[in-house]
Structures are given as structure tokens and as C-alpha cells.
Write a structure and sequence with these properties.
The complex is a heterodimer. Chain A contains five helices and two strands, in the order ααααββα. Chain A is mostly helical. Chain A has one domain. Among the domains of chain B are: about 60 residues, no CATH class; about 80 residues, no CATH class; about 60 residues. In chain B, β1 and β2 form a beta hairpin. The longest helix of chain B is centred in the first third of the chain and has 32 residues. The chains are: A mainly alpha, B mainly alpha. At the A-B interface, α2, α4 and α5 of A face α28, α31 and α32 of B.
Amino acid sequence: MESLILRTATRLLVSLILVFSVYLLFRGHNAPGGGFAGALVAATGFALYIMAEGAGSVRKAIRIDPRRLIIFGMGLTLITGLIAGFSGMPFLTGLWWPISDHTNTPSVMLGTPLIFDIGVYAIVFGTILTLILTLEEN
Amino acid sequence: MTNLAKQNSSVILARATSAIPLFLFFAAVSMLPKTMAGGFYRFEFPWIPSLGVQMSFMLDGLSVLFALIISGIGFFVTLYSADYFHGHHHTGRFFVFLHAFMLSMLGLVATDNALALFVFWELTTIFSYLLIGFEHEKESSRSSARQALLVTGAGGLALLIGILLLEIISGTYEISQMEAITLQLKSHPLYGIILITIFIGAFTKSAQFPFHFWLPNAMAAPTPISAFLHSATMVKGGIYLLARFHPILGGTDAWTMTLVFIGAITAVTGAFMSLGQSDLKKILAYTTVTALGIMTLFLGGKTTYSLTAAITFLLVHSLYKSALFLIAGIIDHQTGTRRIDQLGGLWDSMPFTAFAAVTACFSMAGFPLFFGFIGKEIMYKGALAESMFPFLATTTVVLSNALMVAVAGILVIRPFLGQAGDYYATVREASPYMWSGPVILGGLDILFGIMPDWVGRWLVEPAVRAVHYTAEDIELSFFHGINEPLLLSIITLVMGIRFYLKQQFLYKWVNITFDKFPLTASQAYDRIIESIAGLGKFQTRLIQNGSLHRYFFVVAAFFVISAGYGYISRVESFPSIIFPLLSWREFFLTTVIWAAVVTVVITRSRLLAVCGLGIIGAGIAMIFLSFGAPDVALTQLLVETLTVIIVSSILLRLPRLSLKPIKHRPQRIFDAILSLGAGILITTLLLAVLSNDLDRSITTFFEQNSYLAAHGRNIVNVILVDFRSMDTLGEIIVVATAGLAGYALILKRREK
């Protein structure tokens, strides 16, 4: 679809959509969002990009093959589970490390569930993008 | 690095991995003094504590004997394979499979826990599958691998049933503890079923009739694998199982009768079939079937002699058969053929291999001074002392041994001593890494043959005592005096030589007879596989004929009928419908959804229909939002958006819907009824759910623990990534699989 308006708008929108997607991913633990929703938003952004610029330029822009993202996500979630295993706890137990700001009250907690969520993000995003790109190129 | 240097370094690396079996071999050797004294090693650690299952290992005489065979032959096979696969593009993969198999096999013979035994059992099946199919570019390799997997895998499942039944009766998975209630087990009504399931497991693994056919087909594997898995170790797994369960389930009439008859049939079938082959490996495969049959036959007995015969022959066979397979591999590697009628005069060009072949074959034929002779003498003693069918056992063993004498002659005389063809003028001896294994194994045949007493005390007796506590003293000796076994040995040799002289006739006779059989076991297997595939095709044509409309219709109809029947047959009163007063917002949303539904149903434009569906989805998301479920609403909205994008990008490529009136009016009416039925059913079910008070205990738990235990305020997300992350893991695996499957489907269309 050749449309200057669409292409220009897309340039602006896609970057916003992607930022929003990462924002959803990180806020997920305390507010609506999370890896799955974030990945859907990102995929929507790229779907828009494909409509405006075509599948080829999207492949160029993302550099990595989305199929690899699926594998990466799968590996990440499994490793997250194994971290707990190596600490002597059941597979996939959430582990947390407080990040102290020197006032002895931990302000931010960093945990394996976030890494797990990033894995979910990668799998869902990779899957949808793989499908859309292959469909478009067909 | 140049390609050559790369290959050389991979050979050195492959050879280095032989340190693993070597270490394990010496570890097993170090256990010998204790097992010789009748002791055992036992250690355990928790495995699935919540189910009371522990990973326990117990090494007694039997386990150590098996461990020595597995690790010892494993060592030679590793060294051999490094040169055999020189330059092969999958060398690394091969050695990973090889050592993984070896460790699984060691686990199988070392564990005391029946469930662990099952797991190791299946692991050996899987690695055998991967190794048979190692040359996976060939169709024959793939189908042989699949056949071995299906046959032995099905047997493994039967074994699992037996193990579970044993646990139900005895209350333990520890094999060593089951022996305490052996009398109770044998009189239990489930004894027969346990026996059948354990036998199916053992017979499939050890290629007993009627499951013997997979073993000759497994010769599609690379030769070192045939030497290791399909002669010395994996196929002995069934023998190990029978020996291990002998003190628990053995000794009854049912046990003896089944094993003696099946063993006898297997032994004779294998022996005759081996004479009808011209491929070296097939000949060896069928004689392996024979040997396994003889071991099964002797495990049916309950006398000391009978069990000693089984164990001794196990060791004899492992030594000579693995050597012979490795030799067959060397011949194939150096000359490029394994056909017995094309080989000749290899003695001059391959002296070391020839020496190994002669010793192994002499042991197989049971000539005096070779270990095979000791084995044969004890076999005759055992057969004569059988409690139930001494005549059948003796006849079978004499006949099989005579045929093995003939096979030994076929293997040695023509290929090594016969007329050398011009074709083989350039044949050279293989590298020392390849011939050292067979030579040392052949040397052991002589060494053990000269010092049978020593072998008996260190290796055979501890193993026999592990399965037969009241064993009398066992003596393996070189000369027992002039008695019945010696007489039978002489008869065997004479018959064997006659068979050898008649080999041309027997070759034809076996092949003609085999062709005349109305249904061989192998054909029966093919028929079963074909009919399963046929059933699959039939039901696919019926309910998955490629029309999306049919798919939806079948799924929805199945749901409406099954769920509707389930609900109506149990429900006492139907929920009453109360129309609540809608707020203006709800009224607006409902109207929009209704309008969209009507549009979807009546429109002739695909794009409009997809957009209509999107509006319905978005409307539902808004309803979620208005009831305070922002997370669900967000996800629903995003999924709807993507669905519209993906589906419309597909639909835009399809031809336009025709504007003519649709002809299949009855179909349309059916569809309408089904849709209405599904809608009414779901509405009723939802109302029924709502008419009861909701159990809020789970919600309360999550509300209370979400922040305290999982540091998150968004309950939905905390459930997804923490409380129930295992479910999420399963779901994302489904997502990834579905995605890749869709990807493959799209690519397949493109190819067309």
C-alpha cells in the first residue's frame, strides 16, 4: 500500500507503540499489562509497519529472524525455572533480590518472574511476527 | 583450521571420550571383590519425595557383570567408532548418542527402583531409535528406527503396567524389597497379568518371537552400534529383566512354560533364518536372535545349572558377537561390501582382523579351548537338568548350536580363506584402533576358555547367586569327564559340519520356505501399521476434509451435543432469566454488539465480516472493563486487533464472495440451528454458574498473598508469572508450537 500519509504516521506511531509495549511489560507486575499484552502491542506496531513499508523493510529493521526470538524466549523461561532448581527449590519458584537504596528499606525488588515474563514476551512476539511476515511474503 | 586438521582433531576428541567407559569399567572392576563375597553396593537419594519415590542403585553380582560388559565393550566401540566415522559430518552427534545410551544402559542394570528402571529402559529405547536412524537420509534407516521404537516402546509401556501392578500389591518400588513377598505375589490373582506385561517388555526388548523381526531390521544402524546395542547390551536388557525378576516372579509353571517355549521357538527360528542370509550383518543379527532365545529358555528354568547356563552364555555371547560385528564393520569399511558371496581371501591382507574373526567364530562354534566350549558344556548340563521340558530344551540347544557351528564356518572359511578376487587386491588392514577391540575380545575368548574356573568364581557365580540364593556350588571347568554333555558337544560339531556342507541347499530352502509363510511376524507388523494409518486417513477424510466450514461444524456440534447432554441429564431446574436494568453504558455496548452480529451474518463482504467480528470482540472487552477487569479487557482488545489484521491480510488475497444467492439452503438452516444452539447453551450454562454463590476462597488467597509472597499488586500477572507459572510455560510452548506449525503450513502452500 503506497500512502505517504500512512508511512509518515507509521514512523511516528511505531516508535510510540514500541515504547508503550515495553512499558506494559515492565509495569505488568503491579498494574494492567505484562509480557503477553506487551508482546501483542509490539506485534500490532509491526503489523502497522508491514502495511506501510512492506515485509522486506521490517525484516531489515528488526535484524534478527523472529523465529530465533521464539527459541530465545523458550530458553529464557526454562532457564528461569532452572535457577530455582539450582537453588534447591521446585522448578519455576520465583526468587527475589531487593535492590537497596542505602536506607535499609528495599525500594525495588528484582525477581525471576520478570525474566520469565520477558521470555513470554519474546515467544508471543516472535510467533506473531513470524506468522505475519510469512503471510505477507507469500 | 583446514578441513583435514579439523577432522583429525575431531577423531582425537572422539577417542578421548573413551575415557568415560574406561573409568566406569574400572569402577565396576573395583566392585568385584565385594560381589564375589556375596555382598552388594547400595546407595540412594530422593527423587520424587512427594510420591515417596527414590532413586536407588544396588549393584550385586548380576548388575556388576552387566556393567562390566557394557563399559568394557563400550570402551572398544568408542575407540573403533572414532576411526569408523572419520570425516563423517555428524561425528559429534554420534558420540553424544553413544555415551548417552551407555549411561542409560548402566542405569538400567544398576537401579533398584522399578520406576527408575522403566525410565532407563525407555531411555535406551530412545537412544537406540536415534542410533538406528543415524543415517537418517536413508528411508530404510528411518523406517527401521521407527519399527524398533514402536515395538520396544510398546513393550516398555507393558512393562510399566507390570511395575505399577507390582507396586500395588507389594507397596514398594524397590525391587530388592519385592522379593520378601514372592510367595504372596505368585498366588495373587493379578500374578498372570503381571507376568504377561513383564514378558511383553522383556520379549520386545530382547527380540523374542513374535517380536524378533525388529532386530534384523535394526541392522540399518552403523555397524559399531549393532555391535554395542544390538548384540552385547540393549537387547540383553530383556534378559536382564527376566533374570532380575526371576527370584520375585519366577519358578512357577507359567513362568517356565512360557520362557522355555518362546525361547525355543525364537532360537530355532533365528538359527534357520541366519542360514538364509547373505549379508554379514543379517547373518549375525539372526544368530543374535538365536542366542537371546537360548538365554530366555534357560531363564525359564529354576535349577542352578539352568541359570548358570543363562549367565555364562550371556558373557560368552557378548564377547564373541560384539567382536564379530566389529569385524563385519571392518570388512565393510575396508572392502566396501558385506555380502558373503563377494568376499574372499582376506587372511593375507587383514591378518589381525582374521585372527580376531577366527577366535570369535571358534568360540561361537564352541570348540574346546575357547570360552564358547565352556558355555556349551554348561548349557547341555542345564538343558538336561531342566525341570519341565528337558527333551525340548536339549533338542533346541543342540540344534541351535549345530546351526551356529555352520554359521561360524560360513563366516570364517570363505571370506578369510577362500579364493581372493582381483577386486580385493588393494584391500588393507584397518587401523589398530579398529582391530584392537576385536583382537582383545577374541583373546578373552581364549583366556576365559583356558581359565574357566577363574571366570566362574569372579563373574558367573556372583551373578547367579544374585538371582538364585540357594545356588549350589558352581564349577566352570575345562573338562568334566566323559559324560552326556561331552557326547552332545560331539553330536553338535558333527551336525554343524553337515549343515555347513549343505549350506547352499539350506540357503535356498530357508528362502523358499520363508516366502511360503502366509503371514510372517514382520508382515503382521506392517499390516498393523497400515491399518492404523488407514484408520487415520478414514477419520481425517470424514471430519477434517480440508473445509474450514466442516471443521467448525464438527467442533461446535460435538460441543453442543456433549455439553448439552451432560447438562440436561443432570440439571434439576433451569436457571430463570432475569433481565436486569441496564445502565445507559451497558445498553449502548449491547446495541453495538448486536448490530455487529447482524452485520457479520448478513454481509457479503469478507472484510466487513472480519471488522464486524472485531467490533464484537472490542465490545466484549469494553464489558470486561466496565466490570473491573482491566487486564482481561486489555488482552482481549489486543488479541481482537491482531486477529482483524491477520485475518484480513489473508482474506484480502481470496477471491470475492459471489453475490449469487447461496444454493445450499439446507446447510444454511443447519448452520443457523447449530449457532443458535451453541449460543443458547453457553448462555444457559453461564446463568447456571451465576445462580450459585461463587467460591471466593481462591480469589481471597491470591488477594492476600499476591503482594506479600510474590511482590506484585496485579493479581492476574502474578498468577501468570509466579503462582501458576508452570501453566504459563505450558501455554507459551503451545503458542510457539502453533506458530511454528502455522509457519510450516504457509511455507508448504508457497512450495505448491
